[in-house]
Amino acid sequence: MGLGTETDETESFAILDAFFEAGGNGIDTADVYGKGASEELLGRWRASRPSDVTDRAVTLTKGRFGTGPDVNDVGTSRRHLHRSLETSLRRLKVETIDLYQLHGWDPLTPVEETIAFLDAATRAGKIHHVGLSNFTGWQMQLFLSTAKGMGAPVPVTLQQQYSLIYREIEYEVIPAALHNAVGLLPWSPLAAGFLSGKYVRGGASSDGRLAADNPMVQHQAKQLHDNDAKWATLDAVRQAAERIGATPSQVALAWVMAQASVTAPIIGARTMEQLRDNLVAANLVLDADVTETLSQVSAPRPEDYPYGRFGALQRERYIDSSEQALREL
Fold first, then answer.
1. What is the spatial distance between Cα 161 and Cα 237, in angstroms, rounded to a whole number?
2. Spatial separation of the C-alpha atoms in residues 166 and 247, rounded to whole Å
């Protein structure tokens, strides 16, 4: 998200080069990141690199949110998505988007209209696969079932906020994703840098993502700094990191990658140092004791989400059995 805005072009290119040299291949962006600056930067990076590098690049972008002042400059209508997709293709300097994701639910546009557009764009060779982002469980299931009924491409991924700090999607979203074989792409797996361990309780956030002048981030920062359970989770992450000789970020990322249905977390490294730290997590496997401790201390605590403990047990059994079935495929 920050490449092209928070991080200048020279360092952004260096980060992208290092990511690919380390074996990475997926680049996630959106038409609204930096008001298009992120896509434009990635387009310039692609144009300046040899084909043996760019041919490996899997391009992910999104459309849905507002790109202009007009009433039709937002949403998942055929008109708006057509303009957004064409703009993304031009900025990224590609003929096809490997994974085109709906950036959020649109309550005003019939899902049939959105699906028909995505089907046509896929048939025209402008999209390889469809993904969703920031959908609730029922919204995702409606979209998937309708796409199947229309004989249209079914979304294959869901990009959702998920980390040791934010696990509420385990109630409905992850079971729905597992049921439909939808891969999860967690965004903010470090909870906007909170799980990096650089924040101190009671201290002001003078830098980092949690200090950004953004209403959503400011709300998130207040939630984190005023929540005893979140700090207890961070303490457990720090203790685990010290015990195994890793950094808090690496422990938090390793936990996310080990969860049911997760295909790959979306890392938002803004510096080369952050990238190198994050990449170590790709080969880090937490032992059972560490995983269990982190899972227990970070478990979401609903008052009585449905059927109390009975419902929680059923959900855990479903996730465990679904994960085992995926491993056996």
1. 19
2. 20
Per the CB < 8 A criterion, the answer to whether 65 and 37 are in contact is no
The one-letter amino acid at 219: H
List C-alpha distances in Å: 163 to 127, 167, 186, 200.
Answer: 29, 6, 7, 19
pLDDT in tens, the chain (329 residues): 678 888 999 999 999 999 999 999 999 999 999 999 999 999 999 999 999 999 999 999 999 999 999 989 999 999 999 999 999 999 999 999 999 999 999 999 999 999 999 999 999 999 999 999 999 999 999 999 999 999 999 999 999 999 999 999 999 999 999 999 999 999 999 998 999 998 888 665 556 666 566 666 666 667 677 788 999 999 999 999 999 999 999 999 999 999 988 999 999 899 999 999 999 999 999 999 999 999 999 998 876 666 665 666 666 666 676 666 655 55
Output the CA–CA distances (angstroms, integers) from residue 221 to 27, 199, 205, 302, in the order listed: 26, 11, 9, 21
Beta bridge partners of 161: 187
Q: How does strand 58-63 pair with strand 127-133? A: unpaired
Helix (H/G/I), strand (E/B), else coil: 108: coil
For residue 226, how many C-alpha atoms fall within 13 Å in the half-sphere facing its CB? 6
Residues identified as active-site: 33
Instruction: Please tell me the distance from the alpha carbon of residue 65 to that of residue 76, in angstroms, as a whole number.
Output: 8
Residue 7 is classified by DSSP as B
